[in-house]
Specification:
It is globular, with a radius of gyration of 21 Å. With 295 residues, the chain is an alpha/beta fold. An 8-stranded mixed sheet has the order 3-2-1-4-5-6-7-8, sandwiched between helices. The chain has 12 helices and 8 strands. Strand 5, helix 5 and strand 6 form a beta-alpha-beta unit.
């Protein structure tokens, strides 16, 4: 079984995540080479000119034929279509197929049926509110947690390569099953996008009544609505492919909000203090895990 350093990696989709991943592997000398394909030829040429990839591909099939490892960084809605279009071009000795989708249960069910034991989900927990190759950064994944999501039949050697990939990106690997992954990411990633979007839409309506609103908007509004500035297609894909978990959290959120609104001033202060404690304990637990892994 080849090590990551001996492999050519083919990346499909050169947006924020795909280009950042390819750039890190290329600049770090972590692999033999990086082939890249995107739907827009200008994007592929830009990736080559910038040194993000080492080989520009005119077609997804060409890219597939070059790779020992295939990384699907296309939008969630295009994962299955892309997989089906390249399946016939993939080498018989290709080692692994990973997807960077932020939801795994529905996507993984489809992709595992196409790729079999060579497939595992791979989700680096990093990003920016603005997508596209122009925002790519080879250090995007530095210090990030990379969720590795096996499916029934996933080869152990594929999981080993996934762990090597996480390390090469500057991150740390964490194995989890698809259901647990989607339940957690719904809470800390997918549902917050809808909350931020809701607040932004509400502010837009309020602005029609209160023209001074933009002048008084400051750090609080900017910070709480930051993820509403991301690609609309990404938010829609996350909500649609993880809808069960997002709707579950929406109901819980309504209950929590009702509790806050109905509380006395004294009880509200207690609840807000508890909220602060919850936030700090979650962030501290992640940092403690990182320190433990370093030892």
């Amino acid at each position: 079984m080849k090590k990551l350093k001996e492999c050519t990696v083919s990346v499909f989709g050169l947006g924020l995540l795909g280009a950042s991943l390819a750039w890190k592997l290329t600049s770090g000398g972590s692999v033999q080479g990086v082939a890249g394909w995107s739907r827009t030829r200008e994007t592929v040429q830009r990736a080559l000119d910038t040194g993000i990839i080492t080989h520009a591909c005119d077609s997804a099939e060409e890219c597939a034929a070059l790779g020992d490892i295939l990384i699907l960084a296309v939008p969630i809605r295009s994962m299955e279509e892309t997989s089906l279009s390249i399946a016939g071009a993939v080498r018989q000795d290709a080692l692994a197929v990973f997807d960077l989708a932020s939801t795994k249960t529905e996507v993984g069910r489809s992709l595992s049926s196409i790729w079999g034991p060579r497939y595992a989900g791979f989700h680096p927990m990093a990003g920016k509110e603005k997508g596209g190759i122009g925002n790519a950064d080879p250090e995007l994944f530095l210090g990030s947690i990379c969720a590795i999501v096996p499916f029934p039949g996933t080869s152990p050697s594929v999981l080993t390569l996934a762990e090597e990939l996480a390390s090469a990106l500057g991150g740390r690997s964490l194995r989890t099953d698809p259901a647990e992954h989607d339940a957690v990411t719904a809470c800390i990633s997918h549902f917050p996008v809808l909350v931020a979007a809701s607040l932004s839409l509400l502010a837009g309506k309020e602005r029609e009544i209160h023209p001074l609103l933009p002048l008084l908007a400051a750090g609080g509004f900017r910070d709480t609505t930051r993820v509403a500035g991301g690609p609309a297609w990404l938010g829609a894909d996350m909500a649609s492919t993880n809808g069960v978990q997002v709707r579950r959290l929406a109901e819980e959120f309504k209950n929590v909000l009702d509790e806050l609104l109905s509380a006395s001033p004294e009880d509200l202060e207690i609840l807000l203090a508890k909220a602060s404690e919850c936030r700090e304990s979650i962030l501290a637990a992640k940092e403690a895990w990182r320190k433990e892994e370093r030892q």
